[in-house]
Design a protein that fits this description.
- With 354 residues, the protein is an alpha/beta fold.
- The chain has one domain: TIM Barrel (Alpha-Beta Barrel).
- The protein has helices at 2-9, 16-21, 27-42, 83-95, 113-126, 137-146, 151-160, 176-183, 189-201, 218-235, 261-274, 285-288, 290-296, 313-316, 327-336; strands spanning 45-49, 51-54, 100-103, 131-134, 206-212, 238-245, 280-281, 303-306, 340-344, 350-353.
- The strands form three sheets. Strands 8-1-9-10 form a four-stranded mixed beta sheet. A three-stranded parallel beta sheet has the order 2-3-4, with helices on one face.
- α11 (261-274) links the parallel β6 and β7.
- The protein binds ligand V47.
- Ligand V47 binds next to β5, β6 and α14.
Length: 354
């Protein structure tokens, strides 16, 4: 263990087994190692943006066992917004100060390719300065299969219609045996990585998520991060890594034990140490709770996502994020925890310190 700690202190790269061993460290010791990297890069700054999540349809041809959002037996309320509704929500969010819309849908075979893509064009026409973060790699894979288009062709259309960056969703956990159990049939791990690689090759940025706290092992988490680190070495386009804590309500995945705060914080800290080439680690408060996200600032995380305004995916599974947080409260919480709230744009340019 001593040698691994020395490596981390010297900022040498650690491998899969070494990262796995870090889980055996006492929490605060591990936290200190991660915090020293965070402080070296960002001091006490904690980044957030003012954004609005829009989830335009919950009708999905795939069945992911962890998902409580898609319309199914446990959530029999299918909806699909019109393009006008999506544009109105974006306009309303812009008026309230949002600089980004984060648009993620289910995989709805009835909606049509134009519905998916036109909404971005219409949002950009109405709001030329808003940043559109839209379509997960899982959605791009779905559109490519459904409409017989290559990934390049889907991506061409997205760029033409004003999509600025890709969200990190759909990554779940890359380990194939676990992936088969929780979301068989959806985008594969190698396809997810390939799509982000193509996106990066266009000079564009994206995020990467990892869904953890269900049936995966610690080794699966580290393997997931290693695959992201390898791609980032080549493509360099990931801005941020977002470990999403699994929420267990209203879905078909039987998970008996919730993760402890200790295990969640250790995972954030190891992500900060292992992912030496991905600049930002986000504690997405919608899945960690806002209180643990504030603590996570001491364990390597430098980003708290944003005010969200409205959120439908995690809140369907039990998270307390349906209506986001008011800016004033959000900023106050960051300040009270001893950090400096910095509003950023979607590409991490600093806009203002609050
Ligand atoms: O990929 C679904 C996850 C993701 C559950 O890029 C669940 O900035 C927990 O990707 N418990 C979509 N998570 C959300 C997402 C995201 C969120 C915030 C910021 C960014 C970003 C991306 O939600 C899915 C899936 O992994 N999810 N069900 C659940 N029960």
């Amino acid at each position: 263990m001593k040698e691994i700690i020395e490596k981390v202190k010297n900022r040498d790269r650690i491998n899969l087994d070494e990262a796995l061993k870090l889980y055996d460290l006492e929490l605060l010791e591990l936290g200190k190692l991660a915090d020293s990297i965070r402080v070296e890069r960002f001091g006490k700054k904690s980044y957030f943006n003012i954004n609005r999540h829009i989830n335009p349809t919950n009708v999905c041809k795939d069945i992911c066992k962890f998902c409580a959002y898609s319309a199914n037996r446990k959530n029999p309320n299918p909806y699909t917004m019109s393009v006008e509704e999506i544009v109105d929500i974006a306009k309303n969010a812009w008026e309230k100060g949002a600089k980004e819309v984060h648009i993620v849908s289910a995989h709805n075979p009835e909606a049509g390719l134009n519905w998916y893509i036109d909404s971005f064009k219409k949002v950009k026409e109405a709001l030329p300065d808003i940043h559109i973060k839209a379509l997960t790699a899982a959605e791009i894979n779905f559109l490519s299969q459904e409409y017989n288009l290559s990934y390049d062709e889907v991506i061409d259309r997205m760029i033409e219609c004003g999509v600025d960056s890709l969200p990190g969703g759909g990554a779940e956990i890359f380990a194939e045996d676990v992936r088969d159990k929780i979301c068989k049939g959806k985008v594969s791990s190698s396809e997810w990585l390939e799509i982000h690689k193509i996106w990066h090759s266009r000079g564009k940025k994206s995020n990467a998520t990892m869904l953890f706290g269900h049936i995966e092992s610690r080794r699966d988490r580290i393997d997931h991060m290693m695959r992201l680190r390898e791609l980032q070495d080549v493509s360099g386009g990931f801005n941020c890594f977002i470990p999403l804590v699994y929420q267990r309500d209203n879905n078909y995945l039987k998970v008996e034990k919730y993760l402890s705060a200790n295990e969640i914080l250790k995972t954030y800290a190891i992500a900060r140490i292992l992912l030496d080439n991905i600049p930002h680690i986000k504690a997405y408060w919608a899945t960690s709770t806002i209180n643990l996200a504030l603590v996570a600032q001491e364990f390597g995380c430098d980003d708290l996502d944003g005010t969200i305004q409205k959120e439908s995916i995690q809140s369907a599974a039990g998270a307390d994020s349906a209506n986001g947080l008011e800016l004033e409260e959000f900023v106050g919480l960051i300040k009270n925890s001893g950090f400096i709230p910095v509003e950023r744009d979607s590409l991490y340019n600093e806009l203002r310190e609050l």
